[in-house]
Amino acid sequence: MSTHALAAVMERLKQLTGTHTDAELSRALSISPQTLSSWKVRNSVPYSFCVEIAVHYACSLDWLLLGKGQAAFFAQENAEWESDLLGRLRTLSPTDRQAILLVIKDKQRIQLLEQRLTELSKGSGSSAP
């Protein structure tokens, strides 16, 4: 593993654990700071450890090791956010929920139109006057 690749893996580990420093990361991973330091010296994180972390945080090994794809832990965060949002929506009156639904549909319609406009602009090969 190159130094650059190791640094990227370390950053993704910090994202997973919500940490910012090496000291915080070692605590969050329940490893000693010396272990973390030895990984840096060797330019390597043990694969078995990465597998354990991926399972624990429900993230993709491709994402953790290579930065490819999307981390599944974002889906977990989204699930919590969605659950909170649904709980809040359920407290509203049916009229308020309907109004929110209309705003969401309008926003989605605008996004679709913007996407189509971008595709048309790319396809025509010309710029607007």
UniProtKB/TrEMBL annotation:
Q: Which InterPro entries match?
A: Lambda_DNA-bd_dom_sf (IPR010982), Phage_CI_N (IPR010744)
**Any one GO molecular-function label of the UniProt entry:** DNA binding
Gene Ontology BP term (one) = negative regulation of DNA-templated transcription
Cited Gene3D superfamilies? lambda repressor-like DNA-binding domains
What is the designated name of this protein?
Transcriptional regulator
* Residue ranges of every copy of the Bacteriophage CI repressor N-terminal domain listed in the record: 8-71
Top-level taxon in the UniProt lineage: Bacteria
Cross-referenced Pfam families: Phage_CI_repr (PF07022)
